[in-house]
Amino acid sequence: MNYKHLLTLILALVFATPSIAMRCGQRIVVTGDDVYRVLQRCGEPDFSYSRVEYIRVGGLNQSFSRTVPVTIDEWVYDLGRTRLKRRLIFENGRLKKIETLGYGD
Q1: Cβ-proximal residues to 30 (8 Å cutoff; 6+ apart), any chain
Q2: Which pTM was predicted?
Q3: Checking phi first, is residue 80 left (phi over 0); if not, alpha (psi -120 to 50) or beta?
Q4: Residues near 72 by Cβ (< 8 Å), separated by ≥ 6?
Q5: Could you tell me the residue ranges of all domains in the chain?
Q6: Residues 24-63: pLDDT tens digits?
């Protein structure tokens, strides 16, 4: 590996935002943030989708478990042609996951 490739790799690692965080201009949102904070820092998403999933919670014994609704919101931010799009996944209003998609439009 030549020095040019090594330098590019080091710079990419230094400036890469981990999948638990996303940069919105000078601000950063992280997993655990609520919907309001993400809206404040990043603005309205380019696309959003909401659904309800039902999950079983409780013990191993059927008599102690129950099914509860969980609201799942997915937001997509298109950051432009030269940057990758991001999908933010919220569960009951809390940011749980940040995914990287293809390049923006």
Answers
A1: 20, 21, 22, 95
A2: 0.75
A3: left
A4: 50, 51, 52, 53, 89, 90, 91
A5: 3-103
A6: 889 999 999 999 999 999 999 999 999 999 988 876 666 7
